UniProtKB/TrEMBL annotation:
KW Cell membrane (keyword) present: no
Subcellular location: Cytoplasm
Comp. bias (Basic and acidic residues): 1-23
Assembly mode: Homodimer.
Entry keyword set: Chaperone, Cytoplasm, Stress response
HAMAP family per UniProt: GrpE
Protein role: Participates actively in the response to hyperosmotic and heat shock by preventing the aggregation of stress-denatured proteins, in association with DnaK and GrpE. It is the nucleotide exchange factor for DnaK and may function as a thermosensor. Unfolded proteins bind initially to DnaJ; upon interaction with the DnaJ-bound protein, DnaK hydrolyzes its bound ATP, resulting in the formation of a stable complex. GrpE releases ADP from DnaK; ATP binding to DnaK triggers the release of the substrate protein, thus completing the reaction cycle.
Protein name as annotated: Protein GrpE
């Protein structure tokens, strides 16, 4: 009896070691699972950042596309309106000349003012004033002269006003320009210097 009980209480060799190994392997799996989850989270965040960047880039491209389409639409409209109004410039010139000669009266006055209102609403702007500096981008010089009354090339007469839509010039202002008289300032300075020299000599003669 005693031998059987002793034999039953005896454990197989290595049983404790196997159990401890199983417990150890179970504990080692937890850190590996945590590390794997952290890697997956990092990859998910990276993918999210990439998709967000792609979305922002697409949105910026779409905004640029809309701006380009709007700009092209405005340009096409300006070209079409400019082509139409260019044909009306001779009529507007006639209306302007009639007004200068006080002949814009009666029904002709009403029609002329109505036409000017319509073209103004379409964006047509008149420019060119007497006395303003000559600008080759805005003015076309048809007459040229010299004058002592100007210090730079100046529009002294507006022969035909200019017209533009926005920044698009339909017709430059046709003007008569005057430039400062050549050598005028130099001669004046020379005369002043000679007068001062003569005065100095005169003063010296009086002292003698």
């Amino acid at each position: 009896m005693t031998e059987e009980k002793t034999q039953g209480d005896e454990k197989e060799p290595g049983a404790d070691s196997a159990a401890k190994a199983e417990e150890g392997s179970g504990n080692d799996g937890a850190p590996e699972a945590a590390a794997s989850g952290a890697e997956e989270l990092a990859e998910a965040r990276k993918a999210l950042a990439e998709r967000t960047a792609d979305l922002q880039r697409l949105q910026a491209e779409y905004q640029n596309y809309r701006k380009r389409v709007e700009r092209d639409r405005v340009t096409v409209r300006e070209i079409a309106v400019a082509a139409l109004l260019e044909n009306l410039l001779p009529v507007l010139d006639d209306i302007g000349r009639a007004r200068e000669h006080e002949e814009l009266t009666g029904g002709f006055k009403s029609v002329g003012e109505s036409l000017e209102t319509v073209v103004s609403k379409l964006g047509l702007q008149q420019f060119g004033k007497q006395g303003e500096p000559f600008d080759p981008q805005l003015h076309e010089a048809l007459m040229h002269s010299y004058s002592s009354d100007v210090t730079e090339t100046t529009c002294v007469q507006i022969l035909q006003p200019g017209y533009k839509i926005g920044e698009r010039i339909i017709r430059p202002a046709r003007v008569a320009v005057a430039e400062p008289e050549p050598g005028g300032s130099g001669e004046a300075e020379g005369g002043s210097t000679e007068a001062e020299s003569a005065g100095a000599k005169g003063d010296g003669g009086d002292e003698d």
